[in-house]
Amino acid sequence: MTEILSSPIVSHPSWAVLKQAVEAIRPWQSKDGSIDFDADGAPACDDAERTLGRVIGAVEELAPRLPHDAGYHQALVKDLRKWADAGFGVPDFLDSLLAFQPAADRRDGLEHLVVFPMYTQNGNPDRNLEAVALSVVWPDWLSELERTRYDNPLFVPIAFQDFTPGYDTNSAVLFPETVAVREAPERFTWGGIFCDREAARFRKVTQAAVDALGLQLPQDAAALLDDQELTQQTFVLWDMIHDRTHSHGDLPFDPFMIKQRQPFWMYGLEELRCDLTTFKEAVKLEAEDHSMGRYVQYAILFDRLFRFPVTGDRVRNYDGLGGQLLFAYLHKHEAVRWTDNKLHIDWQRAPQVTNQLCADIESLYRDGIDRPKLVHWFAAYDLVATYLSPHPGSVWAKGPDALDLNQLPRKLVDDVLPDEFPLSMFYEALAKKLRDVIASTKGITAGDRRQVAA
């Protein structure tokens, strides 16, 4: 369980009332967020109304402490009452979602109380009612970089204060598209990423990997793993540059491209492109004596090399694929070696080789402008397969002649294997060593007692 941080919201008695009421409602809800009063174990409608009344009362008690969210909390209470009046059918919180605009006021330490029926990405797939108390992480140096260099007006780095069970998971984001609404807004105006969870998880998994692999760290890299606050600051910079990169460069992707129908290596390359672009910018920042540049490079390398490939299942794991590709590229270009059961990183060569992989992906994108979609997919496959061995049973690995090209490209995605590029022997060994550590980071936050010692 989390250790609740000092907060005027979570220390108020109404926060405990709100959490208890929300947690009472969640088990009653169906996958779509509705309550089926005919289901086994369902409450009486009157009980559901009374419990929701406690949610509303708690929100109204807490709202005066957050005057900057007055419009949102007023709309929230209306949406909660509307849900009850409609018999607790599929919830529609579009009005309160549109009223919640955290990106419009990014002040460091500013708190928000968020209540929505929602699923949590990499967490709970059902649209349950959730309550989250959070604070904005927006230091002056980050604000200045965003204003002068990395404009990203929709990005909101945040930290947990406390949360209901949907966030006692691996989820580290608060995204508006996860909220139950009657129709999607024309555009989303903010996206929140919990840098404290990212940092805590990164520190614990990376330290375990370093110990398991016998990796000798430079002094500043070791200092990063020892400092939760420094790691959080590192992640907000990484996240800010990564997030904006989706809409920059040749052949930019929709940031929400996961909803599109493409082979999963296309998602993997896009996420890796954004991380490697961030890495490239971090190298520039270091050259300009910006203290965070070096830390961002370490964070990207370690998270991508150690955690991403061995986290989650092997069903179209596009983030895992990107980490596998980065390791294989560094290994084949002699920037890393695994010998005598120890990992060695050439700290001078690794940034150069990482930037070269970024250039290769950028070249793939630039050439893709002149290619049909399917040809581009094959070119991307060839890039990945140059460094990662495809599954022996892969149809795509046999090339275009093995596929029915009379089908639409999106139908050919069905021929992609769930694990098109299996783990190498290096990662099979690492996965066994890190499995329990990774599982232990579920629900972790900055104040969690499971965190590595600072």
Structure description:
By secondary structure, the protein is of the alpha+beta class. The protein has two domains: 13-189; 197-440, no CATH class. Helices cover 48% and strands 9% of the residues. It is built from 15 helices and seven strands. The strands form two sheets. Strands 1-2-3-5-4 form a five-stranded mixed sheet. A two-stranded antiparallel sheet has the order 6-7. Strand 6 and strand 7 form a beta hairpin. It is globular, with a radius of gyration of 23 Å. The model has no long low-confidence stretch (mean pLDDT 94).
Attribute tags:
single chain, 454 residues, alpha+beta, 5-stranded mixed β-sheet, two-stranded antiparallel sheet
Q: Topology, pairings included?
A:
Blueprint: H1 13-25, H2 45-62, H3 70-85, H4 94-99, E1 111-118, E2 128-136, H5 140-148, E3 155-163, E4 173-174, E5 191-194, H6 195-213, H7 219-226, H8 228-245, H9 264-287, H10 292-307, H11 318-332, E6 336-339, E7 342-345, H12 349-368, H13 373-387, H14 409-412, H15 425-440
Parallel strand pairs: 3-5
Antiparallel strand pairs: 1-2, 2-3, 4-5, 6-7
